[in-house]
Design brief:
It is built from 5 helices and 5 strands, in the order E-E-H-E-E-E-H-H-H-H. The protein is α+β, with helices and mostly antiparallel strands. Helix 2 packs antiparallel against helix 5 and helix 3 packs across helix 5. The longest helix is centred in the last third of the chain and has 17 residues. Bound molecules: FE2/S2 (inorganic) cluster (2 copies).
Length: 177
Amino acid sequence: DDTHGEIVLRVNDVTHRLLVDNRTTLLDALREGIGHTGSKKGCDRGQCGACTVLCDGRRVVSCLTLAVAAEGAEITTIEGLAGDGELRPIQREFVRLDGFQCGYCTSGQLCSAVGMLAEHAAGWPSAVTADVSPDAPAPELDAAEVRERMSGNLCRCGAYPSIVRAVLSAAREEVAG
Ligand code: FES
Ligand code: FES
Protein backbone atom coordinates (compact mmCIF):
# COMPACT_ATOMS: atom_id res chain seq x y z
CA ASP A 1 0.00 0.00 0.00
CA ASP A 2 1.08 3.58 -0.16
CA THR A 3 2.24 3.77 3.44
CA HIS A 4 4.98 1.23 2.74
CA GLY A 5 7.98 1.55 0.52
CA GLU A 6 11.52 0.39 0.00
CA ILE A 7 14.31 2.44 1.47
CA VAL A 8 18.06 2.08 1.27
CA LEU A 9 20.06 2.50 4.45
CA ARG A 10 23.84 2.59 4.72
CA VAL A 11 24.74 1.08 8.07
CA ASN A 12 28.33 0.44 9.13
CA ASP A 13 29.48 0.57 5.48
CA VAL A 14 26.89 -1.99 4.34
CA THR A 15 23.91 -1.17 2.11
CA HIS A 16 20.54 -2.53 3.24
CA ARG A 17 17.28 -2.45 1.31
CA LEU A 18 14.26 -2.53 3.57
CA LEU A 19 10.52 -2.43 3.14
CA VAL A 20 9.24 -0.08 5.83
CA ASP A 21 6.14 1.75 6.84
CA ASN A 22 6.67 5.46 6.37
CA ARG A 23 6.32 5.95 10.15
CA THR A 24 9.02 3.38 11.00
CA THR A 25 11.70 4.86 13.21
CA LEU A 26 15.36 4.42 12.44
CA LEU A 27 15.63 2.49 15.72
CA ASP A 28 13.01 -0.06 14.67
CA ALA A 29 14.53 -0.33 11.19
CA LEU A 30 17.92 -1.07 12.73
CA ARG A 31 16.68 -3.52 15.33
CA GLU A 32 13.86 -5.29 13.53
CA GLY A 33 14.66 -4.69 9.88
CA ILE A 34 18.41 -5.26 9.94
CA GLY A 35 18.80 -7.22 13.17
CA HIS A 36 21.23 -4.80 14.80
CA THR A 37 19.89 -4.99 18.33
CA GLY A 38 22.81 -3.22 19.99
CA SER A 39 20.96 0.10 19.90
CA LYS A 40 18.51 -0.10 22.78
CA LYS A 41 14.96 1.11 23.17
CA GLY A 42 14.74 2.60 26.63
CA CYS A 43 11.91 5.08 26.29
CA ASP A 44 11.07 5.39 22.56
CA ARG A 45 10.47 9.10 23.07
CA GLY A 46 13.81 10.88 23.08
CA GLN A 47 14.34 10.97 26.81
CA CYS A 48 17.02 8.38 27.61
CA GLY A 49 19.63 8.28 24.83
CA ALA A 50 19.90 4.46 24.81
CA CYS A 51 19.13 4.45 21.08
CA THR A 52 21.84 6.97 20.11
CA VAL A 53 23.59 6.27 16.79
CA LEU A 54 25.73 8.40 14.49
CA CYS A 55 24.39 9.78 11.20
CA ASP A 56 27.25 11.22 9.14
CA GLY A 57 29.21 11.42 12.39
CA ARG A 58 26.55 13.36 14.29
CA ARG A 59 24.71 11.76 17.15
CA VAL A 60 20.98 11.33 16.85
CA VAL A 61 18.39 9.57 18.95
CA SER A 62 17.24 6.93 16.50
CA CYS A 63 13.82 6.58 18.18
CA LEU A 64 12.97 10.12 17.09
CA THR A 65 14.47 9.79 13.61
CA LEU A 66 12.34 8.39 10.82
CA ALA A 67 14.04 5.64 8.86
CA VAL A 68 13.18 7.41 5.60
CA ALA A 69 14.93 10.53 6.86
CA ALA A 70 18.14 8.56 7.35
CA GLU A 71 18.36 7.54 3.70
CA GLY A 72 21.55 8.85 2.18
CA ALA A 73 23.38 9.12 5.50
CA GLU A 74 26.29 7.00 6.62
CA ILE A 75 24.90 5.48 9.80
CA THR A 76 27.18 4.06 12.46
CA THR A 77 25.81 1.87 15.22
CA ILE A 78 27.50 0.15 18.11
CA GLU A 79 27.96 -2.90 15.85
CA GLY A 80 30.22 -0.83 13.58
CA LEU A 81 31.82 1.54 16.07
CA ALA A 82 35.03 -0.46 16.32
CA GLY A 83 35.53 -0.48 12.57
CA ASP A 84 38.33 -2.95 12.00
CA GLY A 85 37.36 -5.10 14.99
CA GLU A 86 39.82 -3.68 17.51
CA LEU A 87 38.04 -1.88 20.32
CA ARG A 88 38.37 1.82 19.77
CA PRO A 89 39.77 3.93 22.64
CA ILE A 90 36.40 4.91 24.07
CA GLN A 91 35.30 1.26 24.22
CA ARG A 92 38.58 0.14 25.72
CA GLU A 93 38.37 2.80 28.44
CA PHE A 94 34.76 1.94 29.27
CA VAL A 95 35.92 -1.63 29.89
CA ARG A 96 39.06 -0.66 31.78
CA LEU A 97 37.36 1.91 34.02
CA ASP A 98 34.03 0.10 34.56
CA GLY A 99 31.91 2.56 32.58
CA PHE A 100 28.86 0.32 32.82
CA GLN A 101 26.96 -2.00 35.09
CA CYS A 102 23.96 -3.62 33.34
CA GLY A 103 25.10 -2.26 29.97
CA TYR A 104 21.69 -1.23 28.73
CA CYS A 105 22.68 2.40 28.21
CA THR A 106 26.21 1.63 27.05
CA SER A 107 25.88 1.49 23.28
CA GLY A 108 24.11 4.84 23.41
CA GLN A 109 26.74 6.25 25.75
CA LEU A 110 29.55 5.12 23.45
CA CYS A 111 27.99 6.47 20.25
CA SER A 112 27.10 9.69 22.04
CA ALA A 113 30.63 10.07 23.40
CA VAL A 114 32.17 9.68 19.93
CA GLY A 115 29.80 12.31 18.52
CA MET A 116 30.29 14.59 21.50
CA LEU A 117 34.08 14.50 21.26
CA ALA A 118 33.88 15.46 17.59
CA GLU A 119 31.53 18.32 18.46
CA HIS A 120 33.90 19.52 21.16
CA ALA A 121 36.90 19.26 18.86
CA ALA A 122 35.00 21.36 16.31
CA GLY A 123 34.50 24.05 18.95
CA TRP A 124 30.78 23.63 19.50
CA PRO A 125 29.76 25.32 22.75
CA SER A 126 27.77 23.56 25.43
CA ALA A 127 25.24 25.06 27.81
CA VAL A 128 28.05 25.29 30.37
CA THR A 129 30.18 27.33 28.00
CA ALA A 130 27.48 29.09 25.98
CA ASP A 131 28.39 32.52 27.33
CA VAL A 132 31.99 32.28 26.16
CA SER A 133 32.70 34.75 23.36
CA PRO A 134 32.87 33.19 19.89
CA ASP A 135 36.58 33.83 19.41
CA ALA A 136 37.51 32.24 22.74
CA PRO A 137 39.42 28.96 22.47
CA ALA A 138 37.33 25.83 22.83
CA PRO A 139 36.85 25.15 26.53
CA GLU A 140 38.88 22.35 27.96
CA LEU A 141 36.92 19.15 28.29
CA ASP A 142 36.54 18.58 32.01
CA ALA A 143 34.10 16.50 34.02
CA ALA A 144 31.49 19.27 34.11
CA GLU A 145 31.66 19.63 30.32
CA VAL A 146 31.35 15.90 29.78
CA ARG A 147 28.36 15.70 32.14
CA GLU A 148 26.62 18.58 30.37
CA ARG A 149 27.39 17.36 26.86
CA MET A 150 26.35 13.78 27.68
CA SER A 151 23.27 14.81 29.67
CA GLY A 152 20.97 13.27 27.07
CA ASN A 153 22.26 9.81 27.95
CA LEU A 154 20.73 8.47 31.12
CA CYS A 155 22.10 5.55 33.10
CA ARG A 156 19.68 3.90 35.47
CA CYS A 157 22.56 2.09 37.16
CA GLY A 158 24.14 5.43 38.02
CA ALA A 159 27.50 4.58 36.46
CA TYR A 160 28.06 8.26 35.70
CA PRO A 161 31.34 8.77 37.60
CA SER A 162 32.97 5.90 35.70
CA ILE A 163 31.42 6.97 32.39
CA VAL A 164 32.85 10.47 32.80
CA ARG A 165 36.26 9.08 33.72
CA ALA A 166 36.26 6.78 30.70
CA VAL A 167 35.25 9.57 28.31
CA LEU A 168 37.92 11.90 29.65
CA SER A 169 40.52 9.17 29.54
CA ALA A 170 39.79 8.32 25.90
CA ALA A 171 39.18 11.85 24.65
CA ARG A 172 42.60 12.74 23.29
CA GLU A 173 43.08 9.41 21.50
CA GLU A 174 39.58 9.46 20.02
CA VAL A 175 39.97 12.91 18.53
CA ALA A 176 43.45 12.12 17.22
CA GLY A 177 41.81 9.24 15.36
FE1 FES B 1 15.48 6.80 22.11
FE2 FES B 1 15.11 6.62 24.73
S1 FES B 1 14.88 5.07 23.23
S2 FES B 1 15.88 8.31 23.60
FE1 FES C 1 22.84 0.08 33.42
FE2 FES C 1 23.72 2.38 32.40
S1 FES C 1 24.89 0.62 32.90
S2 FES C 1 21.69 1.72 32.61
